[in-house]
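Justification of computing resources. Each target in the renewal requires a structure prediction run like the one illustrated here; the chain below, 388 residues long, is used simply to show the kind of job we budget for.
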Amino acid sequence: MYTDDVDEAIMLRKKEFLTNNIATLTGNDIPTWNKFNRDIRILPDTITSQPKDTIIQETFLDVLAPEWEPYRVLYTNVEIQGNSYVLMIQLNLVESEDLIKAIVWIYLGVLVGLLIVIFFLTRFISNRLWKPFYTTLQLIDQFNLEKLVTPRFDEVNTYEFQKLNQGLNKLISESLRSFSAQKVFTQNAAHELQTPLAVLQSKLDLLMQDESLTSSQAAVVQSLYDSTSRLSRINKNLLLLAKIENNQFADTEKVNISELINEVLPYFTEQADGKKLSITTSLQTAINLLSNKGLTEILINNFILNAIRHNVEGGRIIIISAPDRLVIQNTGIEHPLDTAMLYSRFGKNATDTRNNGLGLAIAKEICDRYNWQITYQYDGLHNFSILF
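Resulting structure tokens:
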């Protein structure tokens, strides 16, 4: 393609020479012309036998390089002061190719630069345009339904983002109202159930002491008593959850974890002995946490009780305390637990009828309150870790 461009340049130079130069030249000017014009020379008409008025390709020695280089050459007959001469016009293909390459590289450089500018300009405009959207996403990500706080969305000028924020405000407000009503209902229901359950248990207790009951009647009464006791435990745990969520344990003090564990362990001796469990401890002494002592005691009790209930006959429980964590390990079923349901309310082992499925849910609620983290892993033992 660049050969055609060179040929066009040669024909243009021929036209310019015939139009502007040949009329003023004399025979005496020819040596001087040839001296200062390397690519357009005037030769005697007898010096060459090359075809005239046809552009051909020849190789000449470039004395400046020095090397042999290809040229496009045109020979044409001209007449100066009545004498015949041959006008030779030549253009170096290598120089033309280098020029074209340089132009191509310049175009590529401009194109790449333009693309870079467009990229950063588009990114800047996009970030500015979508900033309200990402702000909304961040607020939604930080939203916690249990805190009952409605996020405050910024005022925006974009109509679509205005509608989005309005829709989210409406959705969140309705969700908060529904959740708040559910919490109030749970708390009220648990409170209202306390008295009837206490009366029912006391009546069943009196009935169990009636010596006139047959063995089958006594079994039915015992079953009713067990179910009522379980219902009472569920009711108490639901009340406890409601109190935790309503921030009714606001008082905090320095609680020594190791001392608290030593205080509560004797209460579980009878249950552990019933399953022939061994409980070993490795407790560091100076571990003080700023928390509510009652909640911390409930947390420890729930994990120890969980380790006892879900253990095997003759199993082990290991309790380890360190400055940054509390670890409770226990034997049990020989496969990992379902972590998706581990801390959900009423999530439990289907075969364990004594468990109401709220123990770990309460433990998780307490840990969330103090920004503690619970982790679980199985390595032959079930390991629950509370990271302070």
